[in-house]
Amino acid sequence: MQLLALPAGAARDGVELAVRRLAGQDADQVRRAVRARSADRTRRVLGEVKGGVLKAGQLVSAIEALLPADPDLTWQQALSSLQEDAPGVPWREAETVLIAELGREWRELFHEFDPSPAAAASIGQVHRARWRDGTPQGRPVAVKIQYPGVREAILTDLRLLSIAGAAAGLVARGLAMRAIVAELRARLLDELDYTREAALQNAFHRAITDPDRGADVEAGADVVVPAVVHATSRVLVQDWLDGVPLAEVARSGSQAERDRAGLLYQRFLLSGPERTGLLHTDPHPGNFRLMPDGRLGVLDFGSCLALPGGLPVSFGRLIRALQSGADVEILDALRANGLLRPGVDLEVAKLRDYLAPFSEPSRHEVFSYSTAWLREQFGRVNDPRHPEFAVGLKLSIPPEQLFTFRVWLGIVGVLCRLEATVPVGAELRRWLPGFAPDRPSPPD
User: Fold this and answer.
1) How far apart are CA 94 and CA 121, in angstroms?
2) Region of residue 305 (left: phi > 0; alpha: psi -120 to 50; beta: else)
3) Is residue 28 part of a domain?
4) Distance between CA atoms of 77 and 285, rounded to whole angstroms?
5) N or C terminus: fewer CB in 10 A for the chain?
6) Which residues of the chain have pLDDT under 70?
């Protein structure tokens, strides 16, 4: 299989590195060349295998600080390209899906259609087109076409299980792995139904554009969700959305642009459950754009979790307790949230350090995120030599709460990648139930 190219390539790289160093070549130059080739190989292989394996690679790339230390940013650039520049499939293969879903006369639906993909991701690629709507030029649209055979690839690729387990392990150790892998598998299969995705996208679009939702104007006026034009199970047509991807904003945007993108990104993900009853659970930067008018464009609603009561109240109470609560209050919050194994006690001081990536920003009205800060946090809690490491082994995140933690970690990872300075305290008080003691909370 294609994935076998990764360990085989790594073995060849190791031999080449040893031989070239014995030949007297400069060690730093040799390492740099081998590292660049290894990163490119990983990007290429993950891009080609598609499906769940590529989705896992995209998840890892969103948490840039957890990637291997690399002064040339080779790995960061290679895996970041998976968010939008993964290789697509040849046009003749993509067209078979259009014919199957829209009929042999599918071209009659479009005024123009570009056969070269504008972007490619884990389970489909996007083409730019103009939909026939009665106007002379047609309606500018993005046409997302699911890769042929991707459902079978996800169902039959046993390696998806180990990749899903590794991705879940990024959130916390000691997870209920079997249940979590089943949950991740179900979510991936949900993403294969574009009619479901269209319904979820329409829910967000209505919430943002509804003129009667004046109370939410601070969360909706600065967000753009493209309207769905047409959808089948494997083809999704939506309004075209221009803008600069967040990964590009992180690389070359001004501090003001990065701060604004960070604020809107954080607000959209936190406010979604209260405003729509849905949590957008795919927070990697490729799904977001900074629009020319300063708004945040949001794409890809295939991965959403129904939270009709908003974000979990117990999660907000836990974050609040970690700020200044007594030890017994913190332990009670953990048990109420189902995060502590029955009969297990732990040192709360170590727990505070272990959960610092989640709780530290909440202590501040305004917080400056950075990759250096996040790397320090995870370097400590994932190092067996540090006492905080053992704390993680006593925690147990239920599978139904995995995606809340995953999104939270994604927010932190992307804000660190943006090196953004954003309001935190006010946003959490507004959107996180249970965090503000004077705010009425719905039943958990």
Assistant:
1) 13
2) beta
3) yes
4) 13
5) N
6) 1-87, 156-187, 211-220, 324-325, 379-402, 438-444
Q: What are the start-end ranges of the E strands in 203-319?
A: 223-224, 228-231, 235-239, 244-245, 278-280, 288-290, 296-298, 304-306
CB 298 within 8 A of CB 264: no
3 state DSSP class of 113? strand
- Cα-to-chain-centroid distance, residue 26: 39
DSSP 8-state code for residue 367: E
Q: Are residues 318 and 351 in the same domain?
A: yes
Handedness of CA 225, 164, 85, 248 (dihedral sign): positive
Helix (H, G, I), strand (E, B) or coil at 4: helix
Q: pTM, whole model, 2 decimals? A: 0.75
- Please classify residue 141 by burial: count the beta carbons closer than 10 Å to its beta carbon, then call 0-12 exposed, 13-18 middle and 19+ buried: buried
Give the contacts of 197 (CB within 8 A, at least 6 positions apart): 191, 231, 236, 300, 301, 302
List beta partners, residue 131.
Answer: 110, 139
SS3 300: coil
Structure tokens at 123: 């389970």
Whole-number CA gyration radius for the chain: 23
For 296, the token pair is 């945040």
Helix (H, G, I), strand (E, B) or coil at 131: strand
- Helices 177-191 and 402-418, packing angle to 10 deg: 70
Q: Do 134 and 176 fall within a single domain?
A: no
pLDDT reported for residue 4: 41
192 contact partners, CB below 8 Å, separation of at least 6: 123, 146, 150, 151, 154, 233, 234
Consecutive H or E run containing 135: none
- Determine, yes or no, domain membership for 203: no
Residue 208 located in a structural domain: no
Q: Which domain holds residue 358?
A: 160-191+243-444
Q: Report strand pairing: 124-131 vs 228-231.
A: unpaired
Q: Which residues pair with 223 in a beta bridge?
A: 296
Residues in the chain: 444
Task: Give a yes or no: residue 199 inside a domain.
Answer: no
